[in-house]
Amino acid sequence: MPSNIQEVYREQILPLNEKERLKLAALISDISNKPETNGEAKSAGGIREMFGSWSSGNPHSSDNEQIDADLAKAYADTHDDE
């Protein structure tokens, strides 16, 4: 039996095809969004604790308007200078 989450992922989840992994991720997400049950509080961090998080260092990186502007700039770039 795998002893840690990395082994579980490598041995049991990674071999699944993409559709199965997406279905599993949806199930995990659904479970993590369930309200407290039997008086037990959810653990601090929830889904982020399970999968981790990442910070770009830019406080505006989750700003949708900035993301749209960055995408528009990238799509408009012809890359002629490369």
Q: What sequence of helices (H) and strands (E) makes up the elements?
A: HHHH
Shape label: elongated
**Structural class determined from secondary elements:** mainly alpha
**Biggest beta-sheet profile:** none
Describe this structure in words.
The protein is mainly alpha-helical and 82 residues long. The protein has a domain at 1-35 and 46-52. The chain is built from four helices and no strands. It has helices at 5-13, 18-32, 46-51, 64-76. The chain is elongated and about 50 Å long. The relative contact order is 0.06. The mean pLDDT is 75.
Sequence-ordered SSE layout with sheet pairings:
Layout: H1 5-13, H2 18-32, H3 46-51, H4 64-76
Briefly characterize the structure:
With 82 residues, this protein is mainly alpha-helical. Helix content is 52%, strand content 0%. It is elongated and about 50 Å long.
What are its keywords?
4 helices, elongated
